[in-house]
Amino acid sequence: MKEEGVGRLQPVFCGKGFCFPLGERTYTMGILNITPDSFSDGGRWLEPEAAAAHAIELQEQGAELLDIGAQSTRPGHVEIPPEQELARLEPVLVALQGRLHIPVSIDTYFPQVAHRALALGAHIINDVSGAFHEEMARVIREYGAGWIVMHTGGGTADTQERYPEGVVAHVRTFFAEMAQKAAGYGIPHEALCFDPGIGFGKSYEENLTLLREAWRLRVPGSALLIGVSRKRTVGQATGVERAEHRVIGTVAANTAAIAGGCDILRVHDVLECVEGAKMADAIYRRPMRERGEADG
What we know:
Largest sheet: 8 strands, parallel, barrel
Distance between the termini: 29 Å
Number of helices: 9
Structural class: alpha/beta
Order of helices and strands: EEEHEHEHEHEHEHEHHEH
Number of strands: 10
Strand order of the largest sheet: 3-4-5-6-7-8-9-10
Helix content: 40-55%
Shape: globular
Radius of gyration: 18 Å
Oligomer: single chain
């Protein structure tokens, strides 16, 4: 889980028991939805042992991080309270103890859920609120956890917001403000990972723009995550209606993100996306490394 020998000047994504050097290759985060209503696999992994078995399968397929979500954020979702989210999460986290060697991320915007999940062994909080919350910052600081911060523009998967200055500029400003606020709570840049929130509060064209211009979204010293797996944007571009059949389009979108310097891909189809990332890394990361070595 923890990578040693990281140079002091090399950017990293580090937190509670994990450290990933950035810029050398792309990391794949497998998705485990323990919900009845997620948009592409709702209901498949509700039982704790089934969820744990799938988590181990994702690890065996090459996932280097695992993201567990107990509340759907799909279009038309109905929010559940933190108590219900925890009731789904706790037995799965207990079932996974001692069975994984990759960091576990929890997809939540409830600080009390984050606190309990980190106490049960999680390493990262994937905060999809799209806003800075002091209580969440305090939880992250208390546990020294990683913090994935997603942009929504105040919107959801059902809404589109307006960005007069352009979506890229808006997302970059949001990331910079979040990094500054986190620093004010003693949370270092290397504990942060930023997600532009493909599909949240954005139009189809704005989603494509963010993928095309991912290189403009980077926050110095922090990781960049892209989560486009099976999403409506892929369906609109490819004409593939069923979410679970959007694997090829997802791999293509991931490749564009890697070309733009993305560090982490959040995906459902780990086996295929790991293979795609290795190919994209061979094309894009090797020249970057060689330039860096030459400059050094």
